[in-house]
Fold each of these.
Amino acid sequence: MEKVTIATVARRAGVSRQTVSNVLNTPDVVREETRERVREAIAELGYRVNQAARQMRTGRSRLIAVRIEPANDGINGSVLDRFLHGLTDAAGLAGYRVMLYTAAGDDDEIATYEELLSAYDLDAFVLTSTHHGDPRTSWLAGRDIPFVTFGRPWGAPDTHSWVDVDNASGTTAATERLLATGHRRIGFLGWPAGSGVGDARREGWARALGAAHLLGSSAGVEDGVDTGAAAARGLLAAEPDTTALVCASDSLALGALEAAREMGRDCAVIGFDDTAVARAIGLTSVSQPLAEAAGRCMDLLRELLDGRAPSAPTHVLLPPSLVLRQTA
Amino acid sequence: MEKVTIATVARRAGVSRQTVSNVLNTPDVVREETRERVREAIAELGYRVNQAARQMRTGRSRLIAVRIEPANDGINGSVLDRFLHGLTDAAGLAGYRVMLYTAAGDDDEIATYEELLSAYDLDAFVLTSTHHGDPRTSWLAGRDIPFVTFGRPWGAPDTHSWVDVDNASGTTAATERLLATGHRRIGFLGWPAGSGVGDARREGWARALGAAHLLGSSAGVEDGVDTGAAAARGLLAAEPDTTALVCASDSLALGALEAAREMGRDCAVIGFDDTAVARAIGLTSVSQPLAEAAGRCMDLLRELLDGRAPSAPTHVLLPPSLVLRQTA
DNA sequence: TCCAGGAATTTGATCGTTCAAGACCTTGGA
DNA sequence: TCCAAGGTCTTGAACGATCAAATTCCTGGA
């Protein structure tokens, strides 16, 4: 099986290399009849463009890079993985491929950008886990490298396109559900103030309560089942009339469930992220539309890469959905 | 910031392109002093080889491909994700990058191989989820394309290198643990016969029981919490003296736990895969050394890619470990 | 002093594609 | 009849690296 190049196709179709290239890249400049002939030759020979050669000439690789977390073990770790699955699908459909990398910290990640850009000519990056004071976005923006973030730029100037899930509306929906089923004293179990995502989730709960002219207490602890259980015990003990808890994660929710069971309290619980754990134990949870988010990220990237970038960056905010199970 | 090529470096160091190339690829043919001078120039300029150009000449891309499952939702889905994390790490250390792809079925996957090979000149593939009658391995082997499987070639002729976890020894360890803690009637909750992995897990349990001259019953059902619960109910009802269950997955184990609780039976349960769910609910589970497996896969691949392939394929069988928690 | 022979370095060609520019046809209006 | 203007197709050069062969530089023995 000889290697089939553009020259092979050209010979077979009786045209020049460039004409074949034109059929591939700018079909409209080639006469109908010729175009067909070339297409047949391509099909017969099973020709495929060699990306490396194309890339050398055009500087574009049709590759996008995403970071994969080193080896997170938590209940919530799977969220990014699910996003990754969606992104790989969406990229494939758009003719791109996803390349993975790991990095220990933001600076290391930036070093990796340099490496990937110069070695592999990466076309674009998708960033996840954006946070306050994130140096990555400004580094990329400063070099005009196409990128999209999954997660809005917390605090940073809003100069790039992003996709995010409306965290607040998720907890609002959760709280409203609890209100609708008769709960009147609804607490919130979240993370310490300061993380954008966590604050938003708390905010959504507070907003729903406010709209119903109700009050509720909240706690902020590091994520985890045990920390969640401890915090929930505290909350439930301090407020005997609390009958429901909205939680910022499934881990916390699981802890809350444990605490309530221990204390013999009947307490509805709603988690966040709809992880495997939630599905397994029947925990009602707020579900992020990760596949859709990935698809939208890819859409935005294509805009950037095709040069038809809108003058202003685009922001996509997706509504999460509430998955009802036994716990609420 | 001008683009730095090998020619830039050569000029700066006062040598020819080829000498720079030699410093990079075959340092021993370059005189010590020259080598140093070139290395300095490389460092000063921040030069990095352009993979596309190198690849065009050498035909090697330093890229390896792995399939990522479309978007599996189950409790057990995360196993492959964790393997993927490890592989990305190991590949990075060895100077390779991981490229992802998805495929719907084996034939589609083979089509993707063709695409990836001709378009991106992939160096190697890592296959997961090997199964009986897997057409992928023979396709790759027939074309002399380097690959390793994570999972042994069930049934197929054993002509390639692979890494696998010793499933049987995992359930053996689990069963022995139960025996050591006094259980005498230990059941097994697994999948229908025919899947290599499932059969091996059952086999490990049976072996341990046999060594202790004991008997036990087993059930085989599709993976899932509900199916597991149903099967466990059946087993426990039929055998009032069963006090422990070894399960082929955490999903089944979770179901077993549910069933036992419902029935008011005190029953030890051990799952398999040490998923997030197991950690979350305190389920004792057999843990696969996924990071190590990924590392070994990478080692085998490097052997193949560096041409120092052993004449016979290498097989690596890793022992899993038992993670003790509350349920056993 | 000269030369053989190995070590160190350089030169030209090449990988497969696309860009830029030029060549070749048609067609139609002057 | 001739030429301008498009439309269509072809030709060389270039991208940045490595291979293969050629060249220069050394060293030491005759």
Note: Residues 3, 5-7, 17-18, 21, 25, 49-58 of chain B lie near DNA strand D (CB under 10 Å from a C1').
Amino acid sequence: MIQKPRGTRDFLPDEMEARRSTEAKMREAVRRFGYREVCTPEFEDLELFTLRSGEGIMQEMYVFEDKGGRKLALRPEITAAVIRMYINEAKVAPKPLRWCYFADCFRYERPQKGRYRQFWQFGAELIGADTAMADAEVIMLASEALNATGVTWDLKVGHLAFMRNLLAGLEPAAQRRVMAHLDKKDFEGLAATLEGMGKSALNDSLTALVECRTLKEAFEIAGAIPEKDRVEQTMAILDAAGVTYSLNFGIARGLDYYTGMVFEGFAHNLGAENQILGGGAYRLAHLFGGDDVASCGFAIGFDRVMVSLGDAAPAKDTIAAIICTDEGRSFALAVARQFRAAGIRAEMDLMARGLGAQLARASKSADFAVVIGKREADAGQVTVKDLHSGEQKTLDPAAAVAEVKAYRTR
RNA sequence: GCCAGGGUAGGGUAGUCUGGUUAUCCUAAGGGGCUGUGGAUCCCUCGACCCGGGUUCAAAUCUCGGCCCUGGCCCCA
């Protein structure tokens, strides 16, 4: 038997309904902010991702060569592709651009809870706005999208300027190493690394910065940073918008291209892979040959949200089983068409079963049985049976449709 | 890449320690009895020891390797 590839999943109808339902909630949340969906190719030029993230990314990507000898990769994330698309297709569009996406990504990693080799991200990118309001809108948007799903989670917001200000005296490579320790809260490694650089003096202030939870403290620790007004404005807007968050200036996001505000979200009930949101302000377009446009965006780990939400069953369709004898079939087909035209899920027997067997079958899966035998067909009526209560009555087809339709709303 | 625990019909399981009958039970699925009112019952059917090597008269069982799953580490754009 052929197995599915490692780290991939099959989704049966129940699970797909739950996923689509959650997806719809997030889509609706960002739609209300004016974000419109875009779609980029499943695979891209390999360079798009190595330019952004360095050669190290190669180990974690699905890389292949096509028949023309082109080096391609399955997308490991969406942001780089969206910015590429912006440069290619929308450079002169009026700013700001508000875009969102829901797409699958591929990473060659060891699968575990909440981590798969094919996974879905729901995200948004705000391109061409470089203000506190822009930063705050993206955080609001991410917050609304996640809250709409019903998941319980924590939002942490930070800004790279504080850490960068403290580290201003270090080489870029050294900065990166220090920030990696901080992002992981690895204080022992941090102390050792700083000592190796002869910068142990920084240890206390960096540790204090990571631990501090108020803007006032952070400014005291990090000193005068040029972005002070912008940071204060951003947080004031979040407060005014009623966003629940905590400050965390240890967020480094592990990436060089983030330029300022950064944020992360963590689900309450997940294990090691509990980060369900990541985002921030960045500049990426210049890497791909475009203008140096300011952008801000986020990505939500959709699969982790689904794991966090658990197995709660989505609202089921009302199902009408159209049950008929041979004599009633022609009329039954017409009736089924009426039910479907009214938006009701109507299913007919395909197994050549008798009336009793069809009813037995319907009782397991349907809410109503619409029985059409010779008597009903001759009279132009149907017998509607509520399979939950057992009550039944004979009605005109239109009345039967109304009866079943009313069931949905009660 | 590393560590731990796993893998028996579609799903859930017993059996593995201590090798030995036709691999247990529940459920689901298909058919039959019935043929205009169901979930019952009865009968029948379908369907599994992850893959490969080794040990043995004999392997689901012991052993080695691989694959895959679950969780943790690492990493996480």
Note: The domain at 13-309 of chain A is CATH 3.30.930.10 (BirA Bifunctional Protein; domain 2).
Amino acid sequence: MAVSSRSGPVRSEAARQAILQAAIEMLAERGYDHLAIEGIASRAGVGKQTIYRWWKSKSAIIAEALLEGMILGERLEVPDTGDVRRDLTTWLHAVGEVLLSSQGEGLVRSLIAAATDNADVGQRLRDAIAGSGSGALSTRLAAAIGSEPHLPEGAPIDDIAEALVGALLLRALSRSPLDDHAIAALVAVAVGPPRA
Amino acid sequence: MAVSSRSGPVRSEAARQAILQAAIEMLAERGYDHLAIEGIASRAGVGKQTIYRWWKSKSAIIAEALLEGMILGERLEVPDTGDVRRDLTTWLHAVGEVLLSSQGEGLVRSLIAAATDNADVGQRLRDAIAGSGSGALSTRLAAAIGSEPHLPEGAPIDDIAEALVGALLLRALSRSPLDDHAIAALVAVAVGPPRA
Amino acid sequence: MAVSSRSGPVRSEAARQAILQAAIEMLAERGYDHLAIEGIASRAGVGKQTIYRWWKSKSAIIAEALLEGMILGERLEVPDTGDVRRDLTTWLHAVGEVLLSSQGEGLVRSLIAAATDNADVGQRLRDAIAGSGSGALSTRLAAAIGSEPHLPEGAPIDDIAEALVGALLLRALSRSPLDDHAIAALVAVAVGPPRA
Amino acid sequence: MAVSSRSGPVRSEAARQAILQAAIEMLAERGYDHLAIEGIASRAGVGKQTIYRWWKSKSAIIAEALLEGMILGERLEVPDTGDVRRDLTTWLHAVGEVLLSSQGEGLVRSLIAAATDNADVGQRLRDAIAGSGSGALSTRLAAAIGSEPHLPEGAPIDDIAEALVGALLLRALSRSPLDDHAIAALVAVAVGPPRA
DNA sequence: ACATAAACGAGACGGTACGTCTTGTCTTGCG
DNA sequence: CGCAAGACAAGACGTACCGTCTCGTTTATGT
């Protein structure tokens, strides 16, 4: 004898998808602070009220899109060849390219801007990159425990990952290129100086 | 025998100061994205055109105020007692309080938001905290070279400082509190695990 | 079986009225070129966009108010006692007072200024005064056909009316008072010299 | 032993001419209400203060240019062939062309707009057209006294001229074309119906 | 099947802020 | 001391969005 609470139509999944899709497209195109709810509604073919009914702010839309993996996708997975220095180096090169690419330039900063007024975005941004899933940075570092000077048993894996990601954000904010030298230095910070 | 390039009135220093002052006050009060140029002009008793004549955007105003030390001031200097672990711990406690305080909450995120559309702000933010002046983090770490496991001769001081600051920004974005455990972990990332 | 062309909210008649009312009040108070759209919006308790949505310029607002009879009203009707000379004289005295009165001073010139960038205003201004409704000048002259030297069968009634109104506008522009002598002369121009 | 009343340079005639010239050019190009004092100063190569020092408003500049004959020039002189009907017809055709021409379109309305906030402009506008110099309308009508039905001895010449000019202004304001029919009607108003 | 009622698209509304333009005054240094 | 140049406080311009609110239409239940 389950009772339904009300009659009438349910939330339109098509509208939800269209909104998220329009949001991430326009985020990439115009950046977070030229992203307008009216623009999203118009591009998604949706009334503004449909957005306001389900989300509190535009940052909440971004947070949801981020959670669904619609933004960063799998572009930033850390490889695992067994050699953690090589893997980190490879990954940092990939990240560096995203930071500089025409589509990524601005995207990362846009996400930071979104995080600025929505803690969820910040958390999901951190989890998505440093987090503990498969392909995530923490996981990769954990697998290397014992093999590098800075990664003894009990090393603060999560904090190392966080510091690494933080350093990348800082570079994104100051538009410093992530060149070979910087990459080597970051690897050294994370796992220790190369053996002689 | 300097020659002046033109005649006519000269930039009003009083107006410049009033604008910067009004900007940082309102930044602290209302956050970066409720900071309005009209509001700054009105609070500074200045015409809008006087702002647009000299700055390209509100983030440029913040960048200039930051450069003049009107925002972070000397609140974030790293102490130097000779014991780098103790000094970092003390400093991180101070930073943690700024991040949580009613006046600092939002201020750091506001600066990040400003950095989001102005590379200068990002650079000055980094320099102001990680930079190499007296009382700056890099300087303090350099002084400790040789005394800690992660700080041998040739350690990538600047990158360590950057990673530390980045980690703090990331915590600011995700509103993670900077508790004793996190502080200890960050110290370990920077200078290595405590000796037995 | 009329079909509506779209769904959604409908134009607010209250806002429209408030805008027209505010516009004519401020026109009388401050004159056409100190009439600001922002001022109208503010006095009408309306957003600026609500004005721009429906009118192209401030002169279009004046044109509409004029069309609705909100400005000149019935102040300028030509009387009809059967004696066209007496009627014109009476009417010109009334017009002269409007031109000189504190509320009319400026109002007529303001309407001329509005006509300056909106043909509709010019047309409605002409129609409202010279036009062919009941109480209008043309009508009164037509009724007098055959009774005066300049008004034989086939006289160019409309052009006489237009010339008369034009002469009044020219006096308004040059701030020449409309004294008894001028009135008599204008009557003579319109209907001919008095009989001996 | 003439004494000068003060030291220092004297009003620059070159600047005065440049200002008047720039003003009438821009008046023709952009219309009275897009005519900006800054624009005049800039085009004339003059400081704004030099304008404000000598004129109270932009309409005063127009008034002065009008007085000097820099605007209407001799374009509107009434011919005198001895046949007043023909002369008026010719003149009205010329006026009609000015009203419709690309350079005159707007110019007349601009002058009306200027008259709107400067009685001098109105007066000079009337005098320049209806006035009593050689080639002026009143003069031409006076010469025809006795030869036409509406022009007996003692006819109100000045008022007829004024009514005619007023009718033209009204047509300029309402953008009514001055076609052959209208011209014939105006001639009839001024001098009476054509003889059978 | 029908009534109910929520979700929808559209978009008008009162507002705030934008970045630009112009006003009239003031300031500086040249001639 | 007149002038060209131009900074200044003030404030209106017309545009872009905000978040709320009405419309009229379109579904999905519950009766």
Note: Chain C touches chain D at residues 31-33, 109-110, 112-113, 115-117, 119, 121-123, 125-126, 150, 152, 154-156, 158-160, 162-171, 173-176, 182, 185-186, 188-189, 192-193 (CB under 8 Å).
